[in-house]
């Protein structure tokens, strides 16, 4: 089942999210600290959430993906988690997007790994991802693969954010 993700992580109360910054016109649009009551979360064998981590969300109205840049409690880059999704929109007063299940995890060394391809296929087979969305996802996937291969990932906005001192509690 497709789910909506919000910039303030309200869909994930088990992460005990604490919004540090939110500006839907900014870049990143949100920076959220994973709170002390959070459960540990892993993706592709990488711990992407535990108390003290920060997630910075980058999205654009024309893109079929959103990037979450993840730092650990000491400010070191853990990974970039990319959700392939419908372009973001405001809902219930918060930037959000419909997650289409297919994810890309990029390590600090730039190594990409596609995740949840089986879940994406199940959503297609269930008729929840129409052909036009599938085409947009295929184009976004190809663009991300090219960027990773060419060393052009992450985008400049993410690189600028990473050059800043870490924000956290």
Q: Report low-confidence residues grouped into runs of 5 or more.
A: none
Residue share in helices? 10-25%
Indicate the structural class: alpha+beta
Q: Tell me the Rg in angstroms.
A: 15 Å
Main β sheet profile: 9 strands, antiparallel
Annotated CATH architecture: Beta Barrel
Q: Superfamily at the CATH H level?
A: FomD-like
Counted up, domains total 1
How many runs of DSSP E, i.e. beta strands?
11
How many helices? The count is 3
Order of helices and strands: EEEEEEEEEEEHHH
Strand content: 35-45%
Keywords:
single chain, about 170 residues, alpha+beta, FomD barrel-like fold, 9-stranded antiparallel beta sheet, two-stranded antiparallel sheet, 3 helices, 11 strands, about 20% helix
Q: Can you tell me about this structure?
A:
The chain is an alpha+beta fold. The chain has a single domain, classed as FomD-like (FomD barrel-like fold, Beta Barrel). The chain has 3 helices and 11 strands. The longest helix is centred in the C-terminal third of the chain and has 20 residues, at 131-150. The radius of gyration is 15 Å and the shape is globular. The termini are far apart. The mean pLDDT is 96.
In short:
The chain is an alpha+beta fold and 169 residues long. The protein has three helices and eleven strands. It has helices at residues 117-125, 131-150, 156-163; strands at residues 3-6, 17-22, 30-34, 41-43, 46-49, 54-58, 65-71, 77-85, 89-91, 94-106, 112-115.
């Amino acid at each position: 089942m497709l789910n909506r993700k919000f910039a303030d992580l309200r869909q994930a109360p088990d992460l005990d999210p604490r919004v540090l910054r939110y500006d839907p016109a900014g870049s990143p649009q949100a920076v959220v600290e994973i709170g002390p009551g959070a459960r540990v979360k892993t993706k592709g064998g990488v711990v992407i959430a535990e108390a003290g981590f920060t997630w910075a969300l980058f999205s654009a109205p024309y893109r079929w993906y959103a990037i979450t840049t993840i730092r650990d409690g000491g400010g070191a880059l853990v990974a970039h988690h990319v959700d392939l999704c419908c372009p973001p929109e405001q809902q219930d007063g918060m930037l959000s997007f419909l997650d289409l299940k297919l994810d890309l995890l990029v390590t600090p060394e730039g190594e990409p790994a596609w995740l949840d391809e089986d879940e994406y296929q199940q959503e297609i087979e269930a008729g929840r991802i129409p052909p036009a969305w599938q085409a947009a996802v295929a184009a976004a996937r190809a663009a991300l693969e090219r960027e990773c291969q060419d060393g052009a990932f992450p985008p400049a906005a993410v690189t600028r954010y990473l050059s800043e001192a870490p924000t956290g509690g």
